[in-house]
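Model it.
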Amino acid sequence: MVKRKEKKKAKKRAGRKKRSTEELRQASNHLHYELWMIECMFIGIHSGLAGKSAINNAFIESFVIHTRVLLDFFYYLKPRPDDVIAIDFFNQPKTWEEARPEKTDILKTIHKRVGKEAAHLTYDRQKVSEEQKNWDHENIKRDIGVIADCFLSVVSNSLLGDRWNKYKESNSKIRQSTQNRRAKGIL
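Modeled.
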């Protein structure tokens, strides 16, 4: 059974178009955008500025949708030919597949939850209690950060677009700012 799954995965990878360095550099800039949006929405949610308003709901929905986009990039269950996925950045897909961390329990629920609670209007929304509606933003952001850091540690820098230099610098500043606000009791 395991061999059959591996053969199926290999067949899917074999059908993927090899992308040029420039295509991958441009795609990586869009990956940067997704990570940046998670950071920005996290700050928006936890700033308290929007209260319980529609703006706060927009922060939350944006946060979870961008999370789902990133999970589709890193774990690519059913990629379409034009989807950008992590293995596109490697000559040997196993390089990424062996390096990436397993999904945490919280990340395993994201795809379905986002589909049922944010991306589509479903009857299942009616079954979600107030307590269940809460998203664990902090742990989701942390877990995505671990996966992104892992990806950045194995991908060739030559395949990362210009936005990545700014990201590394700003991400460090954002994390420091968040830590400072936590220490002051603001978050």
